Each structure stands twice: as structure tokens, then as C-alpha cells.
Amino acid sequence: MPKTILIIDDEEKLRSLLARIIRSEGFEVIEAGDGKTGLKKLEQNEVDIILCDVKLPDGNGVDLILTIRQKHTIPEIILLTAYGNIPDGVKAIKNGAFDYIVKGDDNDKILPLIYRAAEKVELAKRVLQLEKQLGDKYSFEQIVGQSKPILQAIELAKKVAETDTTVLLTGETGTGKEVFAQAIHQSSKRNKQNFVAINCSAFSKDLLESEMFGHKAGAFTGAHKDQKGLFEEANHGTIFLDEIGEMALDLQAKLLRVIEAGELIKIGESKATQVDVRIIAATNRDLQKEIEVGRFRQDLFYRISVFQIQLPALRQRVADIEELSNHFLRVFADKTNKQMRYLSKDCLEALKRHAWNGNIRELKNVIERSVILSEGNEIELQSLPYEFQHTEHQQEVMSAFDLASAEKLHIQKVLNYTGGNKTETSRLLNIALTTLYRKLSEFNIH
Fold first, then answer.
1. Extended beta strands in 278-324, E state
2. pTM for the full model?
3. What homologous superfamily does CATH list for 148-312?
């Protein structure tokens, strides 16, 4: 598609000559005789490059650049002047001009300059397209589910995304905490900057400190050169600290300093480095209990839990299992070039009965495995793992002579019915809440 060039110049003969030369190269050309008309043409057309005279009947081209840049980032602006002026040239470049040339003396430079500007515009458009694709991929609209618990979590996340507030995402493993963190970042004013994620449980204490805060060359064996930490990589953006409950206490103190003072000290360095980072933390632990046993700092907890969002377990959103399953089915069918698009009724019922201790991650893995094993256009029950293929009736018959199994099954049913509400579950079971917690622990029900 040919690039569109807007020429703003009050000298009609020169403007027309320039337009003919540029059109002969295959470009689309729009003309304007003053700044006001030029701005109007810019609003009405998708312009890629602007050739603008410095002296206009209604203003100065150098100042016009600032007006244009307030609304438009894509057009590259080349200023034309009858008399070279170094201060004007410097100011034009600072204001966002691509280049500044003298009319007449530099006529042979105009076309090469336009082609270079066109290349830069094309690159900028590609970057914008990639940013849009990235934003679409990690937007809240990509979070699958319409159940009340997940919609409530999304609503809270959307509200906090517009701020710089530190967020704590809580919930069981596999509930989609990193997906929420990405969506919060993409919906924030920091979305043009880096999103950096680190799993605090994946590193030893010393290695985690180095990864987070960086180090100076020679700080320890193997530190051959200076290394920026992830907080520096995320400067002006967002850092996601997954499994923060696994972080050692002395590292928690250093993290607290970053939150409170906006500065960190690299390993082997005494000088502080300033950082401006939005922190989103996540954990599957009960941090209040961790505080009680001395494994987590209370002051840090208050800092990271300014805005807390509890992500629901999959068993609390059974209504979403069909939509999630169909979503993963499409994803993995496309990856494996299969025409599979359906789940059989028996298969779907089995998926809805399952406890899903691994939550969405477990469901995703089950569907991926089933797509690999299945043929045709439908996933059948026999493609699911062995434990899914027994009906609830069969499970009850198998455990009929085992009182503990029957009790566990009954508690699980009631817990599923109440959506994980333990107070309501204990009421329906007619047992004390403390007794229910003891049995949940005994039967390893999460």
C-alpha cells in the first residue's frame, strides 16, 4: 500500500512541483497551504509523512510539530526552510521532527529522505500491530468464564489495573494468577513498558537475590560481569512475584525496601539504584498463617496486600468447565492439525464431576492429552485419564464397604454444592466448623 504524504507550504508553485515529483515515485500526496488546513487534512486522512515549511502564514512549522505530536505518533515530519538556521534545526529535532533541510540547496536529498522516513513509519506500524496483538492476547477479554466468582475477580482486577497500587493475587495452584497479572499490566498505564515475571520458589535464596536485584562483577564466584536484576529490567513497568510466600525472610526485608523507598542495592555494591516498578505478587499459601509461624514478615504482607484478589478454584466455578474445555480443545486441535471440535456428553459430565485439585492447569493438561489420543472430531470418555472413566455410581459402589471413603465422598459433594463455602458446608453436614477442617485435613481435601 503506497504511503501518503502531506505537504504543508504556502508557496503554491513550489508545493505543486514537489507534489508532482513525489507522486512520480508512487506516493499519494495531499496538499495544504497553511498549518490550520494541514491539521484538518491530517485528521481526515491516514498520513505517513509530512513535509512542512518552517514559515507558514498562520504559525511556525517548528511549533506545529508539537501540536501534531500531541495526537499523532506515526507520521514522520520533515521540515523545509528557505534559510538554514541551526537553533531552529535543533529545536525541530527535539520537538520530534525526522529531519530539517534547506529548500533549493537540498532538493536532491528530499526523495532519499522520504524513503528513509517511509521505512521508519513501516517499522513503527509493525510495532504497533505487535503491541495490539500482545494486548489482545493478555487482555481481560481473553480470560475464559462467565461464572459469578470469576467475573467478580475480573471486575476487581479491572478497577485496580488503572492505578499503581500493589496487588496480591491469592488462590490455589493453577487458578490463573499469572494470567490475571498480565491482564492487569496490559490494562494499566505501564503497558508500553516491560512485564517481568519470576517464580520465587524456582531459585535458591542466593540465586533469587541475584536474579531480582542484580550484582556487580566479582561479587561472588562466577560473577564475571555486572548484571542487571529483574527489578531494573522492569523499571517503569510491572514485576510479577509468583509464589512470594516461598521467599526467604532476609530477601523479604530487601523487597520491603524496594517498595518503601523505590531503591535497591545490588549484590557487591553499596550505592542504591532507583527503580519505579509496579509490584503484583501471588501466593497459594495462607500468608496470615505464615506470619504466625514466623515465615513471613507482617510489614511486608501489609505492603503487598493493599489490594487483594482471591482467584476461585475450578470446583467453585463448575459452570465454566464446559467453556474452558472447549477453549483448550480448539487450542490443542489447531496445534496438532486435528479437526476435533466437540466433547461427548459423557466426557463433559466426567470433567464436571472431577475435583480438579490442579485447577485450570490440570484441566488444560487433561484436554491436551485427550486431543493427542482422540481421532475424529469428538473427544470421547475413553480418551480421558483412567480416573475419569468411572462414573460416580461406580465410585460409590467401589467404596461402599469403606466408611472413610464414603464420608470423604459425601463431604466433597457438599463442598462442591456450596461452592467451597466451609461455613455453609458444616451447617449442611450438621457438624462443627472445627470438625470439618479436621476432616478436610484428614482426607486431604483442598
1. 278-283, 307-310
2. 0.64
3. P-loop containing nucleotide triphosphate hydrolases (3.40.50.300)
